[in-house]
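Subgroup meeting minutes
Present: P.N., E.W., G.H.
Scribe: E.W.

1. P.N. recapped why we're keeping a running log of single-chain structure predictions: easier to compare across weeks, and new members can see raw inputs and outputs side by side.
2. G.H. added today's entry (194 aa).
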Amino acid sequence: MTDEQREQLFNGKDMTGWEMVGRGGFHVEDGLLVTEGGMGLLWNTTRTVGNATLRVVYKVSRPEDNSGVFVRIGERPENVWYPVHHGYEVQIMDTEDEYHRTGCIYSLTKAPSGVQKPPGEWNTLDITMRGLLIDVELNGTAMTHFDPNAELPDREFDYEPERGPREEYGYIGLQNHDGDSVVSFKEVSVASLS
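Output recorded in log:
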């Protein structure tokens, strides 16, 4: 897949095609989307995505920075919790356990440690959606494979997603988690699978 075949969802200049839900927000700084403030979701309004590879290039400012990339959000999110329970989050936070660290489907699959680059360095997250399946790669390393029809771990906390099916096509979004986490995104693009 060449860069010319990827559809850029962030134009590098402003937030055209994106809307914010929740507190906090994002701002554009030096061609980057940068998180700020409290819990919220910046979601792309232009199209739903499925049977495609979503690429997100990001960097953190500290290892414990918390963010995430949401896929398969079933409908336009009315509040910050809708995507949690009606989509899937690919976690960005490298200091948690294997079910809650960078590259996992949050609380549903495991991911290995030590793949995210140190603060200040760019990471490439590729999220491939084929039918109901999701495969996540970080910096070229396979992180997790998700099949919603497989046996899933029990939901332990109310902030973890409700279990259950999601749509094959859905909206995507970027999470700003808290005021201390500063995560920058320089690319959000999608390439359809043939």
